[in-house]
Amino acid sequence: MSDDHLTLSSGILPEDAANKKWKPINNEWQDVLPNFKSLVREKSRESWLDELSKLCEKRFDQDYRGVGVLPFYQSKLKAKKEHVREIRRRIEDDLITEWKNGVKSANDVSRLLAALLESIDERRNQLDDKITSAKDNEENAK
Question: Rounded to two decimals, what is the model's pTM?
């Protein structure tokens, strides 16, 4: 599990992870922007920026992951329990397998779980600052 999973840049649920159309967020935009630029260059030079903006907005609002950014994340928010269940399942499977195979002792597993809980608490504590910063950036971008 990585930050890419937590931002849903990479899929968590098996059907999302197996979806070949689902690219990491950066790759998604890196792949689509050259096509958009080619389309825009076919138009009048004075309208390039406006046309590129329209294509990006349409992609963001309607076409990202087939539905648009807002509907995509709203639908994934509704599936939060399934995501949590899958993350827990993966962690448990990995730790139990390593314990059964003698790779980790019960003490190692216990220490790893304590470190994981501490990391989650640190992330949770940083969220308020990140949310505030994101809202400030949103306001500044308007």
Answer: 0.70
39, 53, 26, 89: CA torsion to nearest 10: -120
| 99: CB partners within 8 A, 6+ apart | 105, 106, 108, 109
End-to-end distance of the chain based on CA atoms, in angstroms?
Answer: 34
Distance of alpha carbon 116 from alpha carbon 75, whole angstroms: 27
- Encoded amino acid at 21, one letter: K
Q: Which of 33, 31, 34, 12 is nearest to 23 (CA)?
A: 31
pLDDT by position in tens, the chain (length 142)? 788 888 899 999 999 989 888 889 999 999 999 999 999 888 888 888 999 999 999 999 999 998 999 999 999 999 999 999 999 999 999 999 999 999 999 999 999 999 999 988 988 888 888 888 888 888 887 7
Are 86 and 14 in contact, with CB atoms under 8 Å apart? Answer: yes
The pair of structure tokens assigned to 94 is: 């990995």
**Torsion angles phi and psi, residue 11, rounded to 5:** -75, 145
Running DSSP on this structure, what letter comes out for residue 60?
A: I
